[in-house]
Write a structure and sequence with these properties.
Length: 256
C-alpha cells in the first residue's frame, strides 16, 4: 500500500533561516497548500493521512472539515509546531478529536525529532510515524533503526520510507531528484517492503524562491509552487497507473 501523508502546520520553517512570517501568513500559506493537496487527492481518488497541529486546526476549521468529510485520516502533529512538552501528546489528541469529531490514532513529532515512546503509549496513540531511518548531517542519525514498521512499548512504529540502501524518499528528495529517478526508487522500495510511507507539507505548494522573504537555500525551494503541484499530480497519476493500492495509515495498520 502507498501511504501518502502530509504534515499540516503553521508555516514556521522560515524561522530556521532567520526570517519572520506573520502568523496570518503562516496559516494562509498552509491553508492554500492543503487545498491543492486535497484537490489532487480527490482527482486521483486517493486517501491520505494528515498530521495536524492543534494550532493549525483551530485556525483552519474548513480544512479539517474537508479532510474528514472526504475520507482522509486526521492524526496529531502536536499542539504547536515549534514548542513541545510531553503533556502536548495527550492534549493534542483530545483537542483534535474535539475539533474534528473523529478519533485520532496516530502521532508524528514536528521535524521528525525524537519522542519518548512510553509517553506516546500513555497518551493513547496506536501508532507513531516520527522516525526517518537514515543519516542526514545535523538532522537524523537513525541508521540503526529498522527501515520497516516495528513495535516499541506497545506502539506500532512506522518510519518514513527509505530505499533499501537507506536513501531517504521524503519531501526534499522529491523536490531535488529527477522525477523518473524518484519513481524508480519509490518502486524498488515498495516492492522490497510491501508498502511506501512518504510525507510532504502544504507550504511546498507555494513558490518558495523569494529568498528575501523565506531565506531558503535552493535545495528547499526547488520545484516548489506550481511545479510542485504538477509533480504531485504526475506522481499520483503514476501510482494509479502502477495499480499500487493506497490508503490511510490507520487502514494499513488494521490490515497487518
Amino acid at each position: 500500500m502507498v501511504l501518502l501523508s502530509f504534515d499540516i502546520e503553521e508555516f514556521d520553517m522560515a524561522f530556521e533561516y532567520g526570517k519572520s512570517i506573520i502568523f496570518e501568513d503562516q496559516i494562509s500559506i498552509s491553508v492554500t497548500g492543503t487545498n491543492h493537496i486535497l484537490d489532487s487527492l480527490a482527482k486521483h481518488q486517493i486517501s491520505a493521512t494528515f498530521f495536524c497541529t492543534v494550532t493549525f486546526a483551530m485556525h483552519a476549521p474548513q480544512i479539517i472539515n474537508r479532510i474528514t468529510s472526504e475520507g482522509h485520516e486526521l492524526a496529531s502533529h502536536g499542539y504547536y509546531h515549534s514548542n513541545f512538552k510531553d503533556e502536548h501528546l495527550l492534549l493534542s489528541r483530545q483537542e483534535l478529536e474535539r475539533l474534528s469529531g473523529h478519533p485520532v490514532q496516530g502521532y508524528r513529532m514536528a521535524r521528525m525529532m525524537p519522542v519518548d515512546q512510553r509517553e506516546i503509549q500513555k497518551a493513547g496513540y496506536t501508532y507513531n510515524s516520527s522516525i526517518n531511518p537514515t543519516w542526514l548531517p545535523g538532522r537524523y542519525n537513525n541508521l540503526k533503526v529498522s527501515r520497516k514498521w516495528f513495535y516499541e512499548d506497545g506502539v506500532l512504529q512506522l518510519p518514513a520510507s527509505v530505499s533499501p540502501l537507506r536513501f531517504p524518499l521524503f519531501w526534499l528528495s522529491f523536490h531535488n531528484l529527477p522525477l523518473w529517478l524518484y519513481k524508480h526508487l519509490a518502486s524498488r522500495t515498495y516492492h522490497k517492503d510491501g508498502y511506501l510511507n512518504i510525507y510532504f507539507h502544504p507550504w511546498e505548494f507555494t513558490d518558495l524562491n523569494d529568498k528575501e522573504r523565506f531565506g531558503f537555500p535552493s535545495y528547499v525551494s526547488k520545484n516548489s509552487g506550481q511545479q510542485m503541484i504538477d509533480r504531485m499530480d504526475n506522481f499520483m497519476k503514476w501510482i494509479k497507473l502502477k495499480a499500487y493500492p493506497t490508503g490511510t495509515i490507520s487502514s494499513f495498520i488494521s490490515s497487518l
